[in-house]
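sorry for the late reply, my laptop died twice this morning and i had to redo everyting from scratch. anyway the thing you sent over, i finally got around to it. pasting the sequence first so we're on the same page, its 407 residues, then the predicted structure underneath. double check i copied it right bc i was rushing
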Amino acid sequence: MNNSHEKGTPLPERMRPQSAETYLGQEKIFGEESFLREAVKNGALPSLIFWGPPGSGKTTLARILSRELDSVFVSLSAVSSGKKDLTIVLEQAEKDRAEGKRTILFLDEIHRWNKAQQDALLPFVESGVITLIGATTENPSFSVNSALLSRTRVLVLQSLPSSAIMTILKRALTEDALFLTQKVRADNGVLEFLAQASGGDARQALSALEACTFHARQITMELAESVMQRSHLLYDKKGEWHYDVISALHKSLRGGDADGALYWLGRMLEAGEDPLYVARRLIRFASEDIGLANSFALPQSIAALEACRHLGMPECELNLAQAVVYLAKSKKSNALYEAYGQVKDDIRKFPNEPVPLHLRNAPTQLMKEIGYGQGYKYTPEFKNPEDAQQSYLPEKLRGRKYIIFSE
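ok and here's the structure:
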């Protein structure tokens, strides 16, 4: 660990691992005999994209790789930098290359750069002027240009296991110079709680530990819980987590698991998701996955939407919970969804089929004379339903069955 920082340096930075031996939690991609370890041994590190959640060690791993390869390490944030900053880096990298030095450019939040900015990297990555290590919390398939992806290797970092975060927290208390001076102690169970509550984010766990020390030198469970309650849940309302969690809710509802559905609903609402968004998705689900199997599912969902509009959060959380449990427990049928899908397919294949003459309206004498409405059977006039039978589809689709009712 790097304990040489000044007193004002945040604890996560003071505890940042400086070597492969002290780097924890990503053994799959940086353990013994892993691809990265072998690349370091051979001195042939390719350009990389690190994709993983916050606090999983992307920046730290990039710095360790640079140190292991004795490279010039340059760090840019895509949030606050652009092509002008990149130009300066590239000019210096070319000079360093002429002197036999390798430059590793670490571009944090690479998904924040637009296509033109990302394209500016291509020739320099391809020629080896720089070794790029991009870091992103977003799926690179959607956020990184395909041309750049083809010139890099994507490595997926996972949220750190609680056991690794526990080790990191214990190291902080036993190795950090400032903590040793201040003699910080934690009650039994506190570190385990912080490790679990941090959601795999080592930075959050260390920040919470440090925040506790601002209040007391003896960290109690009550203090730790108070600090963690102010932490943010890992949920990006505009990013991949948003779509992953709503997908989990939808699939739990479809599978009839009310407990799972309630959990994913809570994950969204407690993280600040718009309840109206959730309610609209429930309305869609009511028709897509339940449909005619339970005609009350749709009004139940619409009632939840109206409750959200009238009450807002947090009061409407129970209205959404009620709807979620009701939908999860309802009998399911996707017959309506499948039927309308077939309708759309037929419309694409036969986009302009004429309306049969007998179904057309005939408000003028001319229309009547050319056959509009001729032969139409007004069904209420027929006592025998079979006598009222007629086709209601265009000629090319006559006999088509989109939805079949089970007995």
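The mean pLDDT is 89.
thats about all i looked at so far, will dig more tmrw
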